[in-house]
Amino acid sequence: MSSQLEEKLTQALELARESLQNRHRIGTQSERMVHSTLKYFFEDDEKFHEAKVGRYYADIFKDNHIYEVQTRHLGSLRKKLDVFLKDYKVTIIHPIHHNKWLTWVDPETGETSKRRKSPKTGNEYSAFRELYRIKSQLKHPNLRLKLVLIDVDEFRILNGWSKDRKKGSHRMESIPISIVNIVEINSPADYIKLIPDGLPKKYTTKDYRKAAKITQSASCTALNILHHMNVAERVGKVGNAYLYKTLDI
Fold first, then answer.
1. 179 and 201: one domain?
2. Among 145, 165, 148, CA closest to 157
3. Would the CA dihedral through 135, 42, 95, 190 be positive or negative?
4. Distance CA 22, CA 87 (A)
5. Residue numbers of the domain that contains 227
6. Are 51 and 102 in contact (CB under 8 A)?
7. pLDDT tens profile 99-150
8. CA–CA dist 3, 144 (Å, integer)
C-alpha cells in the first residue's frame, strides 16, 4: 500500500471509530468497521453520508452519484438498485478480505489468543459469487463496481459448536489494516480485468480455477458471469465441459 493510501486509510479508520463510538457500541455487528471505514475512505465529508434518495438511503450521495458499501450479500441491494439506477450512476464498493489475521476471544474470561494469520487468501475473483446475486443488473449502463482487496484483523468469539469452539463461531469485528488493490469496473468491457493471467487460448472452468486460485464452484460462477458480460465466449466443448475463449475488447 502506498504511503498516500496508508495515510488515507488511517484517517478513515479514526473517523469510523469516532462515528461508531458516538452512535453504538463497537463490535455488536460483524464487519461494521469495514463498512464504516470504507465509507470514510471514499468520502470523508459526513454531509454526503446516509442521504435519503427517494424512499431509500444511500451510503454516499454526491454530485448525483450514489455509492453503496456492501460487505456481503449483494442480493440485498437489488430493490435499491432498481430504483437508484433509473436516475443515478451507482457505484457498489465491495470489500474482499485478502489476508486475514485472526484473534480468538474467550466469551467467559475475555482472554484473547495470539494473533495468527489465516491460511485462506481472497482475491478479486472471489467476488463472482456475490456478483451472481445481481447478475440481471450488471449490464446496466449506470452501474459501477469497486472491488477493494483489504487485509484485516478479525476478532472471533470462541462460541462455536466444535470441540475447539471455532467451527460455527461468531465474528465480533473485522478491522481493515491495509488496502491491497482496488479493481474498478466501469463498463462491461472492464470485466476483462477479471480474466487471470496464465490461461490457454481456449480454456475450461478447470483452467480458470487453477489460474484464479478459486474453487471449482466459484470458477463455474465466474465464467457464467464473464460469458453473460460478453467477455468470455463459448467456442465448443471438451466432453461435458464448455470451452471458452476471451473476446478481444
1. no
2. 165
3. positive
4. 33
5. 196-249
6. no
7. 999 999 988 888 889 999 999 999 999 999 999 999 999 999 999 999 999 9
8. 26
Q: Strand 143-157 to strand 116-117: parallel, antiparallel, or no bridges (unpaired)?
A: unpaired
Residue 205 lies in a domain: yes
Say whether both 155 and 215 belong to one domain.
no
Identify residue 161 by its one-letter amino acid code.
Answer: W
pTM: 0.90
Q: Which residues contact 136 (CB under 8 A, 6 or more apart)?
A: none
Gyration radius (Cα) of the chain, Å: 20
Angle formed at CA 35 by CA 32 and CA 36, multiple of 5 degrees:
85
Neighbours of 182 (CB within 10 A): 16
Structural domains in the chain (count)? 2
CB 249 within 8 A of CB 231: yes
How many Å apart are CA 114 and CA 63, to the nearest integer?
Answer: 46
In a domain, 191, yes or no: no
Which amino acid is residue 80, in one-letter code? K
Q: Distance (Å, rounded) from C-alpha 178 to C-alpha 32?
A: 16
Give me 33's grid cell.
468497521
